[in-house]
Amino acid sequence: MLKTLAAQVKEFKRASVLTPCFMILEVIMEMIIPFLMASIIDDGVEKGEITHIYTVGACMVVVAAIGLFAGVMGGKYGAKASTGFARNLRKAMYDNIQTFSFASIDKYSTAGLITRLTTDVTNLQNAYQMILRMFTRAPASLICAMIMAFSINAELATIYLVAVLFLGGCLCLIMSRATKYFQQVFQKYDDLNASVQENITGIRVVKAYVREDYEKQKFKGASGSVYRMFIKAEKILTFNAPLMQLTVYSCILGISWLGAKMIVSDSLTTGELMSLLAYCMNILMSLMMLSMIFVMVTMSMASARRVSEVINEKTDLVNPENPLLEVKDGSIRFEHVNFSYRKGSKEPVLKDIDLSIRAGETIGIIGGTGSAKSSLVNLISRLYDVTEGAVYVGGEDVRRYDLDTLRNEVSVVLQKNVLFSGTILDNLRWGDENATEEECRRACMLACADEFIQKMPDGYETYIEQGGSNVSGGQKQRLCIARALLKKPKILILDDSTSAVDTATDAKIRKAFAEEIPDTTKLIIAQRISSVQNADRIIVMENGTVHGFGTHEELLERDQIYRDVYESQMNGSGDFDQNGGDR
């Protein structure tokens, strides 16, 4: 974990080294000042040597100026190092998230990743700055002050040593008890972020069903959990201040009492007593700073583990050695494929899939909810890897291809259509960043999107709000299809991607596909048989197996599920889930 975090210091190593150097210089200057003060009192004030007072006073001004400069530079470089460290952590996490397979993404919640990128990194940033500055300054100040105190009077300085040991033991006990609560609190932050994210994303549904009060209570519960966990931790940490004050005042009283007796007996001077009291405050303030560091480090340890986990997450989908950089054609073959989302799962999602699809074919896929239609097509572009068997594209095992090469040739329009904030052209060019406006228009015409885009005030420059909230479901689907077409793929997969468009538009899209991209293999997942009945062949899925595979006419003749659904839909009385999904 520490090695992972340290690797993100990168170009800020110089600032990370200079910060403690300046802090140590500041401490040395601070330690000299009480020593010079004692000299002014003992050799200047009490002896009436005004020249000595001026000389030593001038030295104090110089020492103080150097200390001030060191403090300012330490703060400057500390801020630069900690903010740079936080930037690199966020970049490392974000870059690694981009490499995640769907299996890796399924492992983390969206809210959890957001918490790690924001709250957890901020905690580490604060902790790193405190470590560079305070964790250098406090021990250095403590050690120097102890050395100076013992050099003045070892007997009185022993009081400091006892105080340090007592306070150190108490702080360790407090920290050990508070740690477990800080480890739990960030999991509660995930729940809090999840509540906010879900509410904002679904705000239209919340208002439509008048569920504002319910959502408020839900947020209150998540927020209350964070509050209660922090209260438990803070109750333990509140013992820090009383213990510190008890130790400080006990030391002052002890040194003043014994020091006064020593002055009377001429074994200690007034200046030396003043220096010892100054060093007393330095020592105990150093302990206070160390206690603050322990609190921050304790809080950040949980964050460090969570951030390191994301940075070190290794995707299970990697490029092979000497990967293939060209997909010959759009032919697809499933060779006795079994698939499970989790390793060791007793019941696979897909069972013994054995299919062969020719390049340029249009294949319909129907099946009830949960029949693994999406799981089947996800294996083609290697969004997941098979558990057993193999999937071939262009005559080669998909695991032999370079991932980018394969996915550029297999264009997928997923069930959940996602548009990003930006213009329509910006969104379309996700398919091909170098596409001309004419190419974008052509793709939109094939997807029957051009007709509604032309009616918009700004046409193709119309701004799409985050998530595509200012376009309808059907419009969003057609824009996503057009975006996929711009990739000019060898395989096009439509995962129930025309469910929100009317049947007439659906027919136009299918007709355009047949006429304009005849060499592209097209896989169309649908609930409506009318969307797939003109396909070259149709796959009927049931409980993760292929129940039937053939033309529309062949399936009507020999597949009971397909025939039942067809008859029910033609009579206008049902869909696949109501009639064939549970067979």
Task: Please outline what is shown here.
63% of the residues lie in helices and 10% in strands. By secondary structure, the protein is of the alpha/beta class.
Reconstruct the topology from this structure.
Elements: H1 2-6, H2 13-45, H3 50-99, H4 102-107, H5 110-152, H6 154-201, H7 203-208, H8 212-237, H9 240-264, H10 270-312, E1 332-339, E2 350-357, E3 362-367, H11 373-378, E4 388-393, E5 396-397, H12 403-409, E6 410-413, E7 422-423, H13 424-428, H14 437-446, H15 450-453, E8 463-464, H16 473-485, E9 491-495, H17 503-516, E10 521-525, E11 537-542, E12 545-550, H18 552-558, H19 560-570, H20 576-579
Parallel strand pairs: 3-10, 3-11, 6-9, 9-10
Antiparallel strand pairs: 1-2, 1-4, 4-5, 7-8, 11-12
Task: Describe the structure in your own words.
This protein is an alpha/beta fold and 583 residues long. Helices cover 63% and strands 10% of the residues. It contains 20 helices and twelve strands. It has helices at residues 2-6, 13-45, 50-99, 102-107, 110-152, 154-201, 203-208, 212-237, 240-264, 270-312, 373-378, 403-409, 424-428, 437-446, 450-453, 473-485, 503-516, 552-558, 560-570, 576-579; strands at 332-339, 350-357, 362-367, 388-393, 396-397, 410-413, 422-423, 463-464, 491-495, 521-525, 537-542, 545-550. The strands form three sheets. Strands 6-9-10-3-11-12 form a six-stranded mixed sheet. A hairpin with a 2-residue loop joins strand 4 and strand 5 (396-397). It is elongated. The protein starts with a helix and ends with a helix.
